């Protein structure tokens, strides 16, 4: 079985930047996602398309096909008063902020000077070319529930297979 849309793919990966520094990895457990549903960066998903279980490969994903180029318009300064619920505000901290459209966006604090805070709405890896070392561990058909929800479910409730010990569990730990 090869990787195509609507299949659940499990991979082991190591992600490095152009200086070969490890930025992320799947660790001891494979990472699973629903292929073709924009659950991973476009460049990696495209590189995985058509691969088979057992395949291993390396791929360089340019910034434009990863988290995009940095956009200076997403960097702004706000008053420290906007963080009234936080005990302290320091560079590197991340918060959810509401956009003018009412959407939530993750922002990173880059500088605090007096009562002014500089925040950056770019993804932390925006502007970076990314290198992946990938091994395809498993490929399976997605369940109807996974397809309806657009992502992988951690376990199934078909025929009472759930072993999560949550009496109120309805099967989708990712979307409630």
TrEMBL record:
Alphabetical GO CC annotations of the entry are:
cytoplasm
Which SUPFAM superfamilies does this one have?
FKBP-like
| Pfam families (alphabetical) | FKBP_C (PF00254)
Identify the enzyme class: isomerase
Q: Which UniProt keywords apply?
A: Chaperone, Cytoplasm, Isomerase, Rotamase
Which parts of the chain are coiled coil?
Answer: none
Please give the chief subcellular localization of this protein: cytoplasm
Q: Does the keyword Cytoplasm apply?
A: yes
- Keyword Translocase appears in the UniProt entry: no
Annotated compartments: Cytoplasm
* Molecular function via GO: peptidyl-prolyl cis-trans isomerase activity
The protein's name in its UniProt record: Peptidyl-prolyl cis-trans isomerase
